[in-house]
Amino acid sequence: xxxxxxxxxxxxxxxxxxxxxxxxxxxxxxxxxxxxxxxxxxxxxxxxxxxxxxxxxxxxxxxxxxxxxxxxxxxxxxxxxxxxxxxxxxxxxxxxxxxxxxxxxxxxxxxxxxxxxxxxxxxxxxxxxxxxxxxxxxxxxxxxxxxxxxxxxxxxxxxxxxxxxxxxxxxxxxxxxxxxxxxxxxxxxxxxxxxxxxxxxxxxxxxxxxxxxxxxxxxxxxxxxxxxxxxxxxxxxxxxxxxxxxxxxxxxxxxxxxxxxxxxxxxxxxxxxxxxxxxxxxxxxxxxxxxxxxxxxxxxxxxxxxxxxxxxxxxxxxxxxxxxxxxxxxxxxxxxxxxxxxxxxxxxxx
Length: 350
What we know:
With 350 residues, the protein is an alpha/beta fold. The protein is built from 12 helices and 12 strands. Its cofactor is Zn(2+); Mg(2+); Co(2+).
């Protein structure tokens, strides 16, 4: 994939009943989109949403290979047709295939060298499942399968942490948090924590911290699964039997990795000092803290893909859709990060 400045940054506009379309339109109206940005979605739906919100945005139909620039008040669009009309706040399973079609177009364009990166607005997992895709668990897993890779890593980062640490950094609320498991019911998490998974995800995380973030020797701190990191086996044995042996093996390979550490104290400035990323065992263990620290000004990054994908740190916010009150900050962060990662990744490949 080329990261040429002429290649577009693609925004898939997500669930049409949610806030994704209007966040894209807000940034366009405010002149806050990188000029290479192209949206993917139903152009009629986008026009209707812009009119509903009173946003002065000219939507310009385009297609892969065409050079159309996003300027203040102008948004190029690669059109994908809705399956049925969409209303803000009203989910319709009939549009599940539409949402997945926008993703497929973005993935294909990135893999064909027609786009620098893809940025995804939020989708609604439940309505996609109800729309005839029972195995769907989220963007992250869908992208893994679409790209034909064995595994990926979900990582979220607050805005300031998207930059490499400055020398002498002493820790703050700026975080990068990656996950060993992603969209699993809590009841299934412990069974999914294996020696092989902990080592594999850790290696993927370290490799992309170097490849995409330019961190030569990443330092990673790892949460335990259980309270107090298992209390030496008295509050669970996963740390002693699985996580600690996995981390010992990684340290023997030369990786700078700490843990397993109690999650209730790891997320403090003293323990985060000098750490480039935290690896949490499950979704809410790590992301609840990160979103408290920087909700609305953070981005989601999928590591381990053959392309650059970033996303917002929030969901579809159906209760806000069509009202013009949603905050486009996270989408702006995700776009800026996507361009930076594409450039870094291209440089690392040279």
